[in-house]
Design brief:
The protein has about 300 residues and is an alpha/beta fold. The chain contains ten helices and eleven strands.
Length: about 300
C-alpha cells in the first residue's frame, strides 16, 4: 500500500519540550544568490529522477556549486597541499576535524554596520560618484566594542559569529549583500587567529574576506573595481593587493570558516552559545553546505 493516512492522535514527539535550536543558516534552492563572478555561471538545478505520482517516492538530483548558501570553505579551496598541515587540520571537506566544527562561542552584535551603510547608500541615492569610501573592513576594535556592549569575551578555542545585519539583504538586494558587506581583512584575521586563538568564524557576509580583497579586483569583480575607483579615486590593486588572505590563513590554521550566516541569528545575537557547523563528508569537495546552528549552553 503506497498511501499512508495520517493519524495525528499518535504523534508523540513534542518539540516544545526540547531544547531550542537556533538555525543560523540561509535557506537555499533554485533562486539562491551566488557569488557574482564575471561572465555567466550555471544556476543550481534540482531535476527529479523519480516523483510521487508515479514511483511513490521523490528523488532529486543536484547540479551546481558547493559554495552556495551557508557553507564551509575547505583548505583546498584556496591553498595548495604543501601550504597545509594535512594530517593535523585536513585538506578536503571530508577531512575537516569534527572537533573544530562544534564548541562554545559568541554571537556578536554589529548590526550598526547595516544601518550605517544603508544611511550612506540612501544619502548617495545608490550613485558611486557620491559614495565616498562606503566599504567597511572590520577591525579588532569593532570586536572589542561588540564584546563590551554585551559583556562577552572571546575565549581560547571559541567560535565567533558576527551579525552585521547584512543578511537582511539576502534575496532582497544581492548587489548590496555581495559587493558592500563589511568583512574581514588581514589585520583583524591575524588578531582573531594568533591573539584570540579562535577555532571557528562566521558572519552575515558574502565571503570571509571583505569584497575588495579579491585581487586582482579588476578581473575578479570588474564592476566593483569600477565603483570603488569612481567612489574613492583609489586603485584596488594598490589598497587591497592580495587574494582572499583571510580564507587562506583560516584554512592554514584549522579555523572553520562559514559564509552566509543568517536565519534566526537576530534571535540569539549578543549571547554566548554552543555553535555547531558540521559539513557533509565529501572526499572531493573544496567546500560544502552546512547547517550552522546554536543553542544555549546546558540546555540539553
Amino acid at each position: 500500500m503506497a498511501y499512508m493516512p495520517l493519524d495525528k492522535s499518535k504523534l508523540y514527539l513534542n518539540t516544545s519540550k526540547m531544547a531550542k535550536i537556533y538555525d543560523l543558516s540561509a535557506p537555499w534552492g533554485v533562486d539562491t544568490p551566488l557569488w557574482p563572478f564575471p561572465g555567466p555561471r550555471s544556476d543550481l538545478a534540482f531535476p527529479r529522477g523519480q516523483y510521487l505520482e508515479r514511483f511513490h517516492k521523490r528523488t532529486n538530483t543536484y547540479t551546481g556549486t558547493l559554495h552556495a548558501g551557508t557553507h564551509v570553505d575547505a583548505p583546498n579551496h584556496t591553498l595548495h597541499e604543501e601550504e597545509v598541515d594535512r594530517e593535523r587540520y585536513g585538506y578536503t571537506l571530508a577531512e575537516l576535524p569534527l572537533e573544530h566544527c562544534v564548541g562554545t562561542g559568541v554571537i556578536l552584535d554589529m548590526r550598526w554596520l547595516h544601518d550605517e551603510f544603508e544611511a550612506k547608500w540612501n544619502a548617495a541615492a545608490g550613485d558611486p560618484k557620491k559614495f565616498g569610501n562606503i566599504w567597511y573592513e572590520l577591525k579588532p576594535e569593532d570586536f572589542e566594542k561588540a564584546l563590551k556592549k554585551d559583556n562577552l569575551e572571546i575565549r581560547e578555542n571559541d567560535w565567533v559569529v558576527v551579525n552585521t545585519g547584512f543578511h537582511h539583504y539576502w534575496r532582497i538586494n544581492n548587489d548590496k549583500y555581495f559587493n558592500y558587506y563589511p568583512g574581514l581583512g588581514p589585520d583583524v584575521t591575524k588578531w582573531l587567529v594568533f591573539e584570540k586563538h579562535i577555532k571557528g568564524i562566521s558572519g552575515t557576509w558574502g565571503a570571509t574576506d571583505a569584497p575588495l580583497w579579491h585581487h586582482p579586483l579588476k578581473e575578479q569583480m570588474p564592476w566593483l573595481e569600477a565603483n570603488y575607483r569612481t567612489a574613492t579615486g583609489l586603485d584596488a590593486a594598490v589598497t587591497h593587493p592580495d587574494y582572499e588572505f583571510c580564507h587562506r590563513l583560516c584554512g592554514q590554521y584549522g579555523i572553520i570558516a562559514v559564509e552566509n550566516a543568517g536565519g534566526d541569528i537576530d534571535e540569539c545575537t549578543g549571547r554566548r552559545m554552543i555553535i555547531c557547523a558540521f559539513p557533509f563528508r565529501c572526499e572531493m569537495a573544496d567546500g560544502g553546505f552546512t547547517r550552522l546552528v546554536a543553542w544555549e549552553p546546558g540546555s540539553f
